[in-house]
Every structure is written in structure tokens, then in C-alpha cells.
UniProtKB/TrEMBL annotation, chain A:
InterPro entries: Amidohydro-rel, Metal-dep_hydrolase_composite, Metal_Hydrolase, Metallo-dep_Hydrolase. Residues 31-51, 125-150 are annotated as: Disordered. Residues 341-434 form the Amidohydrolase-related domain. Residues 1-28 form the signal peptide. It holds the Pfam family Amidohydro_1. Residues 135-144 have a biased composition (Polar residues). This is Amidohydrolase.
TrEMBL record, chain B:
Residues 1-22 form the signal peptide. Residues 287-399 form the Amidohydrolase domain. It comes from the Bacteria. Keywords: Signal. PANTHER family: ALPHA-D-RIBOSE 1-METHYLPHOSPHONATE 5-TRIPHOSPHATE DIPHOSPHATASE. This is Amidohydrolase family protein. InterPro entries: Amidohydro_3 (IPR013108), Metal-dep_hydrolase_composite (IPR011059), Metal_Hydrolase (IPR032466), Metallo-dep_Hydrolase (IPR051781).
Length: 463, 429
């Protein structure tokens, strides 16, 4: 409880963000990423390019596991082959000669876990004011800020997400103090000296927006607009109108904020919209139509279950916790059956964390959501539940052509679990990113330790 | 935080509450975990009579005339005990007017008592109950002094009398944040604590005039039972060195009945803690250096302390949502399978959320355990209760079966489908 209060007070810390990701693969696909294909030649759209390179791996065969491949499928007693940093094949009876063979009988394999909503690096631990870099809460709309410019790669939280959560990719969003919080960045969860060294090559940018209580409280308390929900919409609509006008300008003078908004209008940048209440989500979807952009995902969408039909029709994902509720007014109607009801309605579900601890247990969150559904008669297969924190997240982040499932040719982002990942008793045993083994529970040397923790009590501990 | 007029809210609840009677009954053929740290018993029976546990075991043969619940395929545990929590003090954390956890503008500190602020109709109590939590140790938070005031043990029953043990303990913080409250330094916390104990001793001995004292009369009086050793003193501390000062305090003031809360770095002083006999309510899955007093945080904290012989339970206050309590206990079992980590046996993990917190608060054998004479707090689960997929099916408190519905279950039922062809959803209730 004290932590919730802190988050609310700080407004950025954890609960503030939300975004959406797109599910209509086509226009949101990675090939349209602004980072890789400049549309307007006047300026470099990718001035802080990824320098990430996969680390070396060896051809590896995981043999005899139960495999949830991320697409929803479950393969029993299957083999997963990794080679040259990629998933090479998944199936039964594969030839493993020339591969380092890992006996995975009785164990489980999934794609690397993906968190669509994290503030690691922007709100790193230790959570001291000097580290509070997630909310540029000085103006209600800041499309000009980029969260990558706040990411501290030495945040110990990245290492916990890898070792305890099996997280291999994650999206870092600005906080939710602002109506438009700024650009998101998608990272590979690989330690690096620089944020560029973590940036997911070819991932599209996202733009963080926020509905509801936070923006109106932050600015209303300063006697500034917005101080109401209608104020939120008024500022947003004018922001979009100005951006559309800018798109027709000669653009002799660069405008960082408008460039981001234009990227959204052109479909290169995906909108991730923090929004709790069903009625507000419905209004936002109309605003998107009015202004000519699309919302990829609503984040923290605790009331999505009330409008599963609308979300399906608009092809908008809901990035949600399993069961958070009651910590702020707009979260009052959160229920554990949210994910299951959305799945039943045919809408897209992504399980997210928004939390440096929750990111270590996204698999358990998904399992809780599945169980809540089962108790009300909605049976959702395990493979589909695994998809909630793998392929669906990748899709909503625009990286599903590269990762999120164990399909041949995709990145070798893989978790070997010591038991059923939908059980509280299971943990990642080994984690590969692009085919490189970066965590091994049985090898203390295969465990990242951030600069911050060197020479401190507990350095290199199991954590 | 602004204090709300709680009485109005609870009066309504009282008027609507139907009197419930304790039933005598037996549960048979279930997997029974008593909560005392032992392994679950297959095909066992639990008998409840007069609101108390009457018998537990595989060889118990209940009187055939007793109403019997067939527990085939079910698990049975004692009602879970959540300590420390704010259950009953808050409706919505972020809605200040509904939040009675702290009292930053109050003129009193140690004299503050959570009892009149507890709202048994709180949704969080209802949700906790539906998740198998039947008792809670409730405390406010420190805000204008290192003393947060007096906490209580409550039950989560659907009745107007939530308090099991009022003024069960005094809460004080020697944490980083406590040092800021005290004036900006741990030095100030320790001076404030010692001065308060001294003034309370003076008050109790009739040597307190009010002149030149820092405590108000009410605060000095409230600390009387603490210095006399008749009321427990819960101390929050996290850093290893801070925990050592708590152990030293116990030696300096031997009458104090200390309980350590938080103890993120408790594993570093596990031997000393075990030797001190101080019970610990500890951070469970906190593994990040969120604050400098938590640099050595690890999920193995509880496992390592338990291995050293510390009476350790899970501190529910570090868990964002109290109903995640059993998930945390389950994770401690998972750690037992990881190289280099320290976990708990299944039975010990359950004990950290049942009998151990009960023992820590001086109610061992009375709550949090299935043992003859203990309160008839019994939960029937649809599977392994520490597993994330399992849920409570029936919950009894003092032998009274409890309703498990709440705001959330009603929303679930209303939105089971989105059909509004005849009337709006508002008519579906």
C-alpha cells in the first residue's frame, strides 16, 4: 500500500503510464518503422541509432520440452533448434547432431517474455529523486521528449527482469503526467554501456498518451489547463489540429513535438494510450477517427471488459494487469476476469507490468487471469495465455515479424523454464537473447550485475 | 491525510448486517494443511464446533450427525493472516478523503489508534476474505512522528465487530523515511525514540509533569504499556545496521516486546536475529535496491532467515495488493528449486502467512492454525492454495460461513456478456 501511494504521489513512478499497441499487423509492421525508413528526407529520423549486436551463441537444441511457441500452439515432447542467433526449427524428431543438446524433458520452453509497459531505466532503482526521469511534467503535452534520453542502462531492474522474469524485450514509456508523454523506446534486455546498445534494431517508435486523472490532476493543481476530463480532450484535439496544419507547412524550422505527432498521423509511430475507464476509451477511439490516427493499445485498461466489442471492432489491444484495482478512483472497477472477458469477446489481450517487480512475474499474472476466467466458465488454453505476454505484446509493439514466437527465422529469444510457466513454482532456468545464453540459473557467471551493484553487499547474489 | 467521517459509513453496514451463527460441521476427504509448518495431510478431516477447531487429522472420525462437507479434491487451510496491512483503513488509496492510513496533521502520534477507523464493509476487506484472508494485523503509517500509533488484529468477517485484539501493538519506524520524519537523520530517530520511552516511563511512574516534556500527555500515556512490556512494539527497519540497532534496543530496554517489520537485509543478520528471539515480518520478493537501506535485497531473504532459526513471516505491507499474499508464499517455495537461492518447504511457506504472523502478534494457537481450540477460521480451496490458479471456495470465520461476493464479483456477473438488447446494463443487478 505505501508503494501505491508513492506511485500516485510521484505520478510517474509506476502507475502513470499507459499505451496501446496495434494489432492490425499490416500498417503497424516493423517495415514501416520510422527508425529504419525515413519518409521525409529533410532530417535524420533515426539520430540515435541502435548499436545493439547479438552476442555469440552456439547451435543449441532444447530436446523433449513442452513448448508454447507464442502463437497459441502447444507442442509436447518437442525440440527447439537455435542457430546463428535465430530460431531454426521447432518440432518433433529433429536431427540434433552438431548442436549443444540440452535435455529439457519435464521442462518448458517459451519465447522470451515481452513487457509492453515498463519504466525500467526511466525510473530506475534506487528510486531516489535524482533518478526520477520518466515524466517531463512541465507542460501537459510533450511529444518532443524521447524516453530513450532518460534510460539509465545500469538500472538493476533490467537484470532482475531477465533472470527472474525471462524478459528479453521491453518497451520503455514516459510517465502519464502528460496527455502526450513523449516517445517510447523498445529495448532488447541485454546489458549495455549505452542505451543505443540496448535499442531493438528496427523497432518502431511509440508515442505515450494518457487519459483521465493524472494529467488533469497534475496541471489542474497548478491552475493550468487541463483540470478536467473535458480539458484533457480539448488540449488533445487542438494538439492534433496543430500537428495536421504543421504537416502541410514548409517545415523550414524543425519542431520536435510536431515531428512525433506527424509520425503518428503517418502511421510510423504507434500510439500507446494509458486509459483506465471504458467510457474514456470509447471517446479516445472517436478522437482518433476524428483526427486521423489510430490507437494501437490502451494500457492499464482495467475497464476494457465493459467494451470488449468496441475494442474488437476498432482493433485496439488492451495492455493490462491481471487484477490490480482500487488504488485510484479510475481503477475502482478493475476485475480479475478482465483478460478472459476480452479474450471471449475476440479482443486483443496483452499482459503488462508497469512495475519493476511485476515484470519479474508476467507469467504468473497471466496464469491468474486465466484462472479467473476458468472460474467463470471461460476456458482459455495455456498456449493462448502464453501468447498474452509474448506474441501479442510483440504485435502491439510492431516487432512481431522479428520476435515474440518460436517460428523459424525469428530472433533466438527463448526461455527454458524449470516447470510450467503458468505455475507459481516455476522459474526461468536459462534465457537466450538472439541465440546467446545470457542467464543460466545453474551458472553464477551467467548472471548480469549492474555497475551500481559492484562492491555492494549482495553483489552477484541470486536476487 | 484528512480523516473521513467513518462512523456514518459503518453505521449503515451495521444496520444491514444479518446476525450469523457459528455452525458445527466437518470437512472430510480433503488435503489439509494445518499452517504450523508441517506438510499437508491427504484424506484428512477438520471438525469445527462452537466456532473453534475441534479436531484435525487423517484419523478423525466425526460424529455422523454433524453436517459434513465433502472435501474430495479440495484443500483446507486455516484462514490466512495478513500482517501488516491497512485493510479496513482505506477505500481508494489515491482518494485522500477515503484514506485513513496516516494522519500527517494530527496533534498526536503514539496515541493514535486504528480501532475506530476500521470499516468492516470496506471492499478491500471483502476482497481479502474472498481470497482466503480471515485475519489481519492493521496499522497506520508514520507521518508526523516516527510513532505511527496503535494497531489492531482484526477479522475480515461480514459482521459489524471486526476487532479481535485492539491496541495490540505500537508501531514505530527506524527506516530511512522515519529518519526524515524525525528531523533528517537516523540520529534524530534514535533520540526521539529514547526520549519517548523515557517520558513514558516517567509518566507511568507518576513523575511526568507536562512541563518540559516533548510528548503530549496522550502520547506519553499510550506508550505506558509499551515500556511496561504489556503491549508489543513493532519496529520497522531494513538496513542490516538498522536491524542491529533494534536488537541492541531490546537489550537496552529488556522489557520491550519487539517485533521487527520490513527487514529487507535481515538475511545479513540472520544469526543475530535468531539469537535475539525477535519475531520478524519480512519483505518477501523485494529483490531490488529500491532504497539505499535495501541494497542487499534478495528474494532469498526469508528462506535464509528461516534456515537460521528466525521466526519469520511475510510482511504483507510490502505487497502492493494484500490478496497477492499467497502468491508471494508460493514464490518462496519456487526458490527452493533454484541453485544458490533459499526457499521454504511448502508447509513452511504456508506458515509464513498463517501461524507465524499469528505467533509474532502474540496470538499463536489462537488464529492462523488448524489446531483444537483455535478459532474456527477455515478456508476450502479448489486446489493447492499457494498456486496462482487456485481460489477459495468456502471461507469460515469463527465457524461462520462468509459471503464471498463483492463489488468486483458483481461487475463480473453484470459484464459476463455485453447484451443490452432489452435494457441497459444498469438494470442488470
Amino acid at each position: 500500500m505505501p508503494r501505491v501511494t508513492r506511485a500516485l504521489a510521484g505520478l510517474g513512478s509506476a502507475l502513470a503510464l499507459a499505451a496501446c499497441a496495434t494489432t492490425s499487423g499490416a500498417e503497424a509492421g516493423a517495415e514501416t518503422a520510422s527508425a529504419s525508413k525515413p519518409v521525409s528526407p529533410q532530417f535524420d529520423k533515426n539520430p540515435y541509432p541502435s548499436t545493439y549486436r547479438p552476442y555469440p551463441g552456439v547451435p543449441t537444441a532444447l530436446v523433449g520440452a513442452t513448448v508454447f511457441d507464442g502463437t497459441g500452439a502447444q507442442l509436447d515432447n518437442a525440440t527447439v533448434l537455435l542457430r546463428d542467433g535465430k530460431v531454426e526449427a521447432v518440432g518433433a524428431g529433429l536431427n540434433t547432431s552438431g548442436y549443444a543438446v540440452i535435455d529439457a524433458r519435464g521442462k518448458f520452453v517459451t519465447p522470451g517474455v515481452i513487457d509492453i509497459h515498463s519504466h525500467l531505466g526511466d525510473y530506475p532503482t534506487p528510486s531516489v529523486p535524482a533518478h526520477s526521469d520518466g515524466n517531463e511534467a512541465t507542460s501537459p503535452s510533450t511529444p518532443d521528449v524521447w524516453s530513450e534520453h532518460s534510460v539509465w542502462p545500469q538500472d538493476p531492474g533490467f537484470t532482475r527482469a531477465l533472470a527472474n522474469g525471462g524478459v528479453t524485450s521491453l518497451q520503455i514509456l514516459p510517465g502519464s503526467a502528460n496527455l502526450v508523454g513523449g516517445r517510447t523506446v523498445t529495448l532488447k534486455n541485454v546489458p549495455s554501456r549505452t542505451v543505443q546498445g540496448m535499442k531493438f534494431p528496427g523497432a518502431p517508435y511509440g508515442m505515450k498518451m494518457a487519459c483521465g486523472e493524472n494529467p488533469k490532476r497534475v496541471y489542474g493543481s497548478r491552475n493550468r489547463m487541463p483540470s478536467t476530463r473535458m480539458g484533457n480532450f480539448a488540449v488533445n484535439r487542438q494538439t492534433w489540429l496543430d500537428a495536421k496544419a504543421y504537416a502541410k507547412d514548409d517545415k523550414k524550422k524543425r519542431d520536435l513535438a510536431k515531428e512525433t505527432l506527424q509520425g503518428v498521423l503517418e502511421g510510423e509511430i504507434l500510439v500507446h494510450n494509458h486509459c483506465y475507464r471504458a467510457d474514456e476509451m470509447a471517446l479516445v477511439m472517436d478522437m482518433a477517427k476524428e483526427m486521423g490516427y489510430r490507437v494501437t493499445a490502451f494500457h492499464h485498461a482495467v475497464e476494457s471488459y465493459k467494451i470488449g466489442d468496441l475494442l474488437r471492432e476498432n482493433d485496439v489491444c488492451s495492455a493490462i494487469w491481471a487484477d490490480w484495482y482500487g488504488f485510484k478512483m479510475e481503477s475502482y472497477d478493475g476485475i480479475p476476469e478482465n483478460a478472459a472477458l476480452l479474450q471471449q469477446a475476440g479482443a486483443c489481450v496483452v499482459i503488462h507490468s508497469d512495475d519493476e517487480n511485476g515484470i519479474q512475474r508476467l507469467n504468473q499474472e497471466a496464469a491468474k487471469a486465466q484462472a479467473a476466467g476458468a472460474r467463470m466458465g471461460i476456458a482459455i488454453p495455456d498456449g493462448q495465455v502464453v501468447r498474452w505476454f509474448t506474441l501479442n505484446a510483440a504485435k502491439a509493439m510492431g516487432i512481431d515479424s522479428m520476435t515474440g514466437s518460436l517460428e523459424p527465422g525469428k530472433m533466438g529469444d527463448v526461455v527454458l523454464w524449470n516447470g510450467d510457466p503458468l505455475s507459481v513454482y516455476s522459474r526461468p532456468e536459462k534465457v537466450w537473447v538472439d541465440g546467446a545464453l545470457l542467464f543460466d540459473a545453474d551458472d553464477p557467471e551467467r548472471r548480469p550485475v549492474s555497475d551500481f551493484e559492484l562492491g555492494q553487499q549482495g553483489e552477484g547474489d541470486v536476487k | 491525510m484528512i480523516r473521513a467521517s467513518l462512523l456514518a459509513a459503518s453505521a449503515t453496514a451495521i444496520a444491514l448486517a444479518a446476525p450469523a451463527m457459528a455452525q458445527d460441521f466437518a470437512i472430510t476427504n480433503a488435503t489439509v494443511a494445518t499452517g504450523d509448518g508441517s506438510a499437508p495431510i491427504a484424506n484428512a478431516t477438520v471438525v469445527v464446533r462452537g466456532g473453534k477447531i475441534a479436531a484435525v487429522g487423517a484419523d478423525v472420525r466425526p460424529d455422523p450427525s454433524l453436517p459434513t462437507i465433502d472435501g474430495t479434491g479440495r484443500w483446507v487451510t486455516p484462514g490466512l493472516v495478513a500482517a501488516v496491512t491497512t485493510l479496513g483503513l482505506v477505500d481508494v488509496n489515491g482518494v485522500e478523503s477515503s484514506n485513513d492510513t496516516s494522519a500527517s496533521r494530527a496533534r498526536f502520534n503514539a496515541a493514535l489508534d486504528v480501532t475506530p477507523a476500521i470499516n468492516p464493509a470496506s471492499q478491500h476487506i471483502k476482497v481479502g476474505r474472498a481470497n482466503g484472508i480471515t485475519r489481519a494485523v492493521v496499522s497506520g503509517g508514520a507521518s508526523n512522528s516516527i510513532f505511527a500509533g496503535q494497531g489492531a488484529v482484526i477479522d475480515l468477517g461480514d459482521d459489524p465487530s471486526p476487532v479481535t485484539k485492539a491496541k495490540a501493538f505500537q508501531m514505530v519506524t527506524l527506516s530511512e523515511s522515519g529518519a526524515r520524519i524525525a528531523g533528517g537523520s537516523r540520529k534524530a530517530s534514535h533520540a526521539e525514540l529514547r526520549n519517548a520511552l523515557r517520558e513514558a516511563q516517567d509518566f507511568a511512574a507518576g513523575r511526568w509533569s507536562g512541563d518540559g516534556n516533548l510528548l503530549t500527555r496522550a502520547d506519553a500515556e499510550a506508550l505506558g504499556p509499551v515500556v511496561a512490556g504489556t503491549q508489543q512494539l513493532f519496529i520497522e527497519a531494513h538496513r542490516a545496521s538498522d536491524i542491529r540497532t533494534v536488537i541492541a534496543l531490546g537489550k537496552e530496554f529488556p522489557r520491550l516486546r519487539l517485533v521487527l517489520v520490513g527487514a529487507t537485509e535481515g538475511w545479513l543478520v540472520a544469526q543475530e536475529l535468531a539469537a535475539s528471539g525477535i519475531p520478524v515480518m519480512a519483505e518477501s520478493l523485494q529483490d531490488l535496491p529500491e532504497r539505499f537501506e535495501q541494497i542487499a535485497a534478495t528474494q532469498s531473504n526469508i528462506g535464509r532467515m528461516r534456515a537460521a532459526g528466525v521466526n519469520v513471516s511475510i510482511n504483507a505491507d510490502s505487497i502492493r495488493f494484500t490478496d497477492h499474499l499467497k502468491q508471494h508464499a508460493g514464490n518462496l517455495v519456487a526458490l527452493g528449486r533454484m541453485s544458490g537461492a533459499a526457499g521454504l518447504s511448502w508447509g513452511e511457506a504456508l506458515a509464513t502467512i498463517s501461524s507465524r504472523p499469528a505467533e509474532a502478534v502474540g496470538m499463536g494457537g489462537k488464529i492462523g492454525v488448524l489446531k483444537p481450540g483455535a478459532a474456527g477460521d477455515v478456508v476450502i480451496w479448489d486446489g493447492d492454495p499457494l498456486e496462482v490458479s487456485s481460489g477459495a471456495v468456502q471461507v469460515f470465520i469463527d465457524g461462520v460461513e462468509q459471503p464471498l461476493d463483492n463489488h468486483r464479483t458483481r461487475l463480473r456477473d453484470r459484464y459476463r456478456d455485453l447484451d443490452e438488447s432489452d435494457l441497459p446494463k444498469a438494470f442488470d443487478w
